[in-house]
Amino acid sequence: xxxxxxxxxxxxxxxxxxxxxxxxxxxxxxxxxxxxxxxxxxxxxxxxxxxxxxxxxxxxxxxxxxxxxxxxxxxxxxxxxxxxxxxxxxxxxxxxxxxxxxxxxxxxxxxxxxxxxxxxxxxxxxxxxxxxxxxxxxxxxxxxxxxxxxxxxxxxxxxxxxxxxxxxxxxxxxxxxxxxxxxxxxxxxxxxxxxxxxxxxxxxxxxxxxxxxxxxxxxxxxxxxxxxxxxxxxxxxxxxxxxxxxxxxxxxxxxxxxxxxxxxxxxxxxxxxxxxx
Length: 277
What we know:
This protein is of the alpha/beta class and 277 residues long. The chain has five helices and 16 strands.
């Protein structure tokens, strides 16, 4: 874990509400794993007082050496609104890399990656990391979902690394009409992967976990929770374990969990009709 003041390398607006910010970083980030995150706070701002958590989208390299990281974020509140106004050279307080990331076993030859909405960053980091390190990347399929085509992020990035992409939107404005979980269920009837990895809204993750369990497929998910410190001190990001013995905390034990670890995935997902547009 490294705490440092870093500079903004760029802060690009890619949609009406989505930005990508590049930050220089300590060489120690070469050890960052897909699924890990950083805590950011814009310096010289009185509010918000606490840092905000953001998944790492990608590493920035120069001549094979890491010089920075990139974060993708959506403007949803005061903290991200302030971040969106940052310019090249502005200073940001960064703490990271934090948490535990995805753990892909050596015997995994086929992987399904699912990302709903702004759940794209850790999933792209995972796909690009596999592309760089694994000879079996062509056996990796990516599923992207959003309410509308405006809520889809990262498609071009996944295309550039040669990923096979499946798309679903709730309103049918791009790809198949329906949910990303519908696409997954259809694909599982034709072909089953060795593992499923996902990030997105809780109800989406529950459905993915249910589908994975019914097919006997290993599944890991990055769980989105409120985090105040990112280091396990405030205990605000507790998630219930299946064995009821104690709580785990997303910032130190996660945010990536095996679906067999936490009680969240034992809960029945809500009926699809509640989300229809």
